[in-house]
Amino acid sequence: MTPLSTLHLAADQKSAQVTDWSGRIGWIVGLLLFIALLYWLMREGWKWRGTLQSDLPELPGAPTEPGTAGLSMSGRYHGSTTAGQWLDRIVAHGLGTRSRAEVTLTDAGLDVVRPGANDFFIPAAQLREARLDKGIAGKVLTEGGLLIVTWQHGDKLIDSGFRSDHAAEQSAWVEAINSMKHPVTTEGTAR
Among 78, 83, 172, 97, which residue's Cα sits nearest to residue 128? Predict the structure, then answer.
């Protein structure tokens, strides 16, 4: 090869194509807009579910004299569903919001205090049963990992899921709530 042919070969080579930044930025912006659209649709679905459940009455507040505390636990509230339908989440009145919870069982009922979310109270006359289960909408654990409390609110039976910081104490809750439960008739009201 002569120096002239080497020079000619060098002139024929082309450099690698430079990244097209405008195309990449366009794709990134498009992806971010798509993600924002998905989050907006999920939020609208949550609000729509709340609208469908607007017939659910307001939650009762805790009584001024709740009585002596039989049991109390610190843990997490994982949400509420229609009784027997563990995927039908109830979002009305803040029942769909997961949160930390301080739960106290008294003679008057079950008091659920949730920092950063709506507190609620389940009167003793409305308690139906308690059981240990493995899941509720949005949360699945090992068998017996969740304390599920079934209660009557208006004309609807509701399952609420709790997880104690000390899971071993949950069986005592089942026994205590079931000893004070009120049976349900076929119409869904207490006898």
Answer: 83
